[in-house]
Amino acid sequence: MRPSTGRISLWPAAVIGFVLVLAASSITFTSTLKAAPPADFVAAGPQSARAMAYWDVGVRVIQWKYARGTALPEQVPEEFRLAQDPRHVVNDDRAARNAYWTKLREAWLRPENWQTGFKFEMSWPIETALDMSREFLRFIRQT
Question: What pLDDT shows up at residue 45?
């Protein structure tokens, strides 16, 4: 054992600081389209099933391709179609796609159609370590 010199050990502060930085790096902001479409997107009547199906495509496909807050393109993307989803047996025609794309473009820019929150995810250190090990192995193989 060492005799006490009256100094304060800094290792507990360093460990606490490291844990706080790790935790802060693991918190991410999330923003996703609400699962339920806005009232003006879904009209009551026989077309409501089609509207729900198109909104579902927006939630499952479109929101992952385009960033929130940016204007969606005027041209309807190929991914915005009902044929991708076998759960919906609604016919997919060009006029309906264009009309619902226009509605989605309008709804996209309104903040009330989005839900925001925070997510705590600790997978990034593992992914970073795996990426570094892959790069290291690739470097070793090249030499």
Answer: 56
Yes or no: say if 84 and 77 are a contact pair by the CB < 8 Å rule.
no
DSSP β-ladder status, 114-120 and 27-33: antiparallel
- Report the run of H or E that residue 142 belongs to, with start and end: helix 123-142
Q: Are 80 and 61 in contact (CB under 8 A)?
A: yes
Pull the structure tokens for residue 81: 């179609």
Strand-pairing partners, residue 32, are 115
From CA 92, how far away is CA 72, in angstroms rounded?
20
Per-residue pLDDT tens digits for 61-105: 999 999 988 899 999 998 998 864 555 555 567 888 899 999 999
Could you tell me the residue range of the domain that residue 110 belongs to? Answer: 28-142
Number of independent structural domains in the chain: 1
